[in-house]
């Protein structure tokens, strides 16, 4: 069976977006965050397109291994650090930077006689309460790390924002202040901002920015798309119409028969569904594009198929391309309809989707 759902990754958009981050965060070094298979865009291809980044950020040591195998020489930061002494050895072997956020990791480091140097990012919990040492302990932890002969002398001081996508949210002000207090007087570069921090919190850029979403042209700022900030979506998701059917007024469509035709009309059936990663929560009214026209899903998304209202696309026929998201139909619109964020959509592509690249 042919695979119809196709994700096209625009390498030119990735390069444009990295340049745009450098422009917006001028003076800061850029860590390109490519965890979760580069937010679903493909680890190796994205790393190749973004090879000018000062560092890569990953969630798994296995990703670091793949990047080293592909020949990348820059810093690679494992954002949750080692989760066992064996991880620590592997990180030294692969020359990966470790985020250190917990006492268990400090204990493994203290017990580790391996002389190979490790670069460390000391993570401060400034108020998100997920990973990191409490502000009051940071100076002591820093001293412990600085005393270890197999830890690199330059320790990066980092924190992570919980709500930087809300440009008015006082939590971010409080987090910046908490962080500044925790690291006051300590040497080393500062790393605070994620994508939304770069957009909305120019005072928090520090020496490093850690950027994921913007590199893919995605935004998590409510009501805003990546394009609104000068970024280009790096993924276009398409499929084709495999059936066009005539319905009579009142006839119902799809599982649980949730949607009834309000008049005699044509319905299109397109070959994509939650089995490809298209969100099942995208209900009737979620936009798609056919022949350059906005159309909409009707009825439930099923595993392999979606059903579409063709009333505004009278010429639509079997074989027509259907666009699920693209530069003309931002993933943020689909995410809003599905009660999600654009990151989750691109991360969710399954192995059934065919990935292709273009240079644009
Ligand atoms: C994922 C992640 C980022 C990147 O966040 P974006 O919103 O995609 O820019 C930055 N820092 C850390 C610690 C992360 O886990």
Automatic annotation (TrEMBL):
<dbReference type="InterPro" id="IPR000821">
    <property type="entry name" value="Ala_racemase"/>
</dbReference>
<keyword id="KW-0413">Isomerase</keyword>
<dbReference type="Pfam" id="PF01168">
    <property type="entry name" value="Ala_racemase_N"/>
</dbReference>
<protein>
    <recommendedName>
        <fullName>Alanine racemase</fullName>
        <ecNumber>5.1.1.1</ecNumber>
    </recommendedName>
</protein>
<dbReference type="InterPro" id="IPR020622">
    <property type="entry name" value="Ala_racemase_pyridoxalP-BS"/>
</dbReference>
<feature type="active site" description="Proton acceptor; specific for L-alanine">
    <location>
        <position position="255"/>
    </location>
</feature>
<dbReference type="GO" id="GO:0008784">
    <property type="term" value="F:alanine racemase activity"/>
</dbReference>
<keyword id="KW-0663">Pyridoxal phosphate</keyword>
<dbReference type="InterPro" id="IPR029066">
    <property type="entry name" value="PLP-binding_barrel"/>
</dbReference>
<feature type="binding site">
    <location>
        <position position="303"/>
    </location>
    <ligand>
        <name>substrate</name>
    </ligand>
</feature>
<comment type="similarity">
    <text>Belongs to the alanine racemase family.</text>
</comment>
<dbReference type="Pfam" id="PF00842">
    <property type="entry name" value="Ala_racemase_C"/>
</dbReference>
<feature type="active site" description="Proton acceptor; specific for D-alanine">
    <location>
        <position position="35"/>
    </location>
</feature>
<feature type="domain" description="Alanine racemase C-terminal">
    <location>
        <begin position="234"/>
        <end position="358"/>
    </location>
</feature>
<dbReference type="GO" id="GO:0030632">
    <property type="term" value="P:D-alanine biosynthetic process"/>
</dbReference>
<feature type="modified residue" description="N6-(pyridoxal phosphate)lysine">
    <location>
        <position position="35"/>
    </location>
</feature>
<dbReference type="GO" id="GO:0030170">
    <property type="term" value="F:pyridoxal phosphate binding"/>
</dbReference>
<dbReference type="InterPro" id="IPR011079">
    <property type="entry name" value="Ala_racemase_C"/>
</dbReference>
<dbReference type="InterPro" id="IPR001608">
    <property type="entry name" value="Ala_racemase_N"/>
</dbReference>
<dbReference type="InterPro" id="IPR009006">
    <property type="entry name" value="Ala_racemase/Decarboxylase_C"/>
</dbReference>
<comment type="pathway">
    <text>Amino-acid biosynthesis; D-alanine biosynthesis; D-alanine from L-alanine: step 1/1.</text>
</comment>
<dbReference type="GO" id="GO:0005829">
    <property type="term" value="C:cytosol"/>
</dbReference>
<feature type="binding site">
    <location>
        <position position="130"/>
    </location>
    <ligand>
        <name>substrate</name>
    </ligand>
</feature>
<comment type="function">
    <text>Catalyzes the interconversion of L-alanine and D-alanine. May also act on other amino acids.</text>
</comment>
